[in-house]
C-alpha cells in the first residue's frame, strides 16, 4: 500500500458526477486521440484507471487496454461500463503492482501520479511504467504545473474552481511539496459538502529526472492534449517519455 488516499464506496459512487466536466467531448476526445495515436497497434496500460473515463473510449478505438487501480470501489464503478474480459484491471498501487505482458503505451492522466505522496513512490511509478513497456514504448503523464507563482505574500491557498455549485482551492507546503485540494460543493437541497484529497506536486524537470532514473528519455512535452506549445506560462503539461528501442525487455 502506498501513501495515496483511498477512494471509498461513497466517493467512488459520486466520482463521475463530481467530475462531469472531464467527460465533456472537448476535454476527453483530444486525450483519447492523443493516446490512441501513440499506442498504434499495441496494447496500453493505464495507471490509476479509476472509473474508466479514458480507458473505455480508448478501448472503443480498438486499443487493448488494461489497468491498475488502488480502489476496488472505483473498479466496481468501471465494471458498469466494461467487463473484466473487455478491460482487465489489477487492484493495487501504481508504484509496485505488476500485470502480465508488455505494452506499447503506459499512461496516467489528470494529475493522478500526484496521488503518490512521496518522491520515492513517484520514482517507483516511473520505474514501474518502464518495467511494463516494450522497447520503444512510451510513458505519458498528464499533470498540472503548481500555481505557486499566484501566491502573494501571506496567502495560504490558490483557488482552482469557483462556481455556484463548486468552490475548490489548494493549500501547499513549499518545503515538502505536499498539498491538499479542498472541495466545497452545494447540494440540491441547499446544503454543502466538504471533501479533501492529498497530493505531492511534481515539477516538469523533476519528472524528467524520475524518467531518466527509470531509463526513459523525454520525447515530447506539450501544454495539453491538443498539442499546444508548453511555455513558462503553461498551467499543465502532457509529457511523453520513451523506452529505448535497444532496452532489455526483461524485469
In a few lines, what is going on in this structure?
The protein is α/β, with parallel strands linked by helices and 251 residues long.
**Overall radius of gyration:** 18 Å
Helix fraction, binned, reads 10-25%
Question: What is the CATH-assigned architecture of the largest domain?
Answer: 3-Layer(aba) Sandwich
Question: Strand tally, please?
Answer: 11
Strand content: 25-35%
Average pLDDT, to the nearest integer?
Answer: 92
Number of domains: 2
Report the CATH C-level class of the largest domain.
Alpha Beta
CATH superfamily membership of the largest domain: Vaccinia Virus protein VP39
CATH fold title of the largest domain: Rossmann fold
Which runs of at least 5 residues are low in confidence (pLDDT < 50)?
Answer: none
Number of helices: 6
The side-by-side strand order for the widest beta sheet comes to 3-2-1-4-5-11-10
Largest sheet: 7 strands, mixed
* N-end to C-end Cα span: 21 Å
| SSE pattern | HHEHEHEEHEEEEEHEE
Shape field: globular
Structural class: alpha/beta
Provide structural commentary:
With 251 residues, this protein is an alpha/beta fold. It folds into 2 domains: 9-146 and 203-242, Vaccinia Virus protein VP39 (Rossmann fold); 148-197, N-terminal domain of TfIIb. It has helices at 9-18, 25-39, 55-60, 72-78, 119-132, 204-213, and strands at residues 44-47, 65-69, 89-91, 103-108, 133-144, 157-162, 166-173, 178-186, 192-200, 217-222, 236-242. The strands form 2 sheets. The protein has a 7-stranded mixed sheet. A 4-stranded antiparallel sheet has the order 6-7-8-9, with no helix packed on it. Helix 1 crosses helix 4. The longest helix has 15 residues, at 25-39. The mean pLDDT is 92. This is Methyltransferase domain-containing protein. GO terms for molecular function: methyltransferase activity. InterPro entries: Methyltransf_25, SAM-dependent_MTases_sf.
Amino acid at each position: 500500500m502506498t501513501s495515496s488516499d483511498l477512494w471509498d464506496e461513497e466517493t467512488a459512487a459520486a466520482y463521475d458526477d463530481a467530475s462531469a466536466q472531464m467527460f465533456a467531448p472537448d476535454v476527453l476526445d483530444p486525450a483519447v486521440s492523443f493516446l490512441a495515436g501513440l499506442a498504434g497497434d499495441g496494447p496500453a496500460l493505464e495507471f490509476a484507471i479509476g472509473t474508466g473515463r479514458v480507458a473505455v473510449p480508448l478501448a472503443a478505438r480498438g486499443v487493448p487496454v488494461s489497468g491498475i487501480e488502488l480502489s476496488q470501489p472505483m473498479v466496481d464503478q468501471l465494471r458498469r461500463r466494461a467487463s473484466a474480459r473487455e478491460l482487465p484491471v489489477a487492484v493495487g498501487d501504481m508504484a509496485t503492482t505488476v500485470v502480465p505482458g508488455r505494452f506499447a503505451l503506459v499512461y496516467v492522466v489528470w494529475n493522478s501520479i500526484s496521488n503518490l505522496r512521496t518522491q520515492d513512490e513517484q520514482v517507483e511509478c516511473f520505474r514501474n511504467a518502464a518495467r511494463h513497456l516494450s522497447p520503444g514504448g512510451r510513458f505519458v503523464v498528464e499533470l498540472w504545473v503548481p500555481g505557486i507563482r499566484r501566491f502573494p505574500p501571506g496567502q495560504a491557498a490558490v483557488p482552482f474552481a469557483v462556481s455556484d455549485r463548486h468552490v475548490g482551492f489548494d493549500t501547499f507546503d513549499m518545503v515538502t511539496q505536499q498539498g491538499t485540494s479542498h472541495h466545497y460543493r452545494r447540494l440540491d437541497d441547499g446544503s454543502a459538502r466538504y471533501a479533501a484529497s492529498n497530493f505531492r506536486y511534481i515539477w516538469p524537470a523533476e519528472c524528467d529526472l524520475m524518467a531518466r532514473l527509470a531509463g526513459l528519455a523525454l520525447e515530447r512535452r506539450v501544454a495539453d492534449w491538443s498539442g499546444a506549445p508548453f511555455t513558462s506560462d503553461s498551467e499543465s503539461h502532457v509529457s511523453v517519455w520513451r523506452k529505448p528501442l535497444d532496452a532489455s525487455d526483461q524485469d
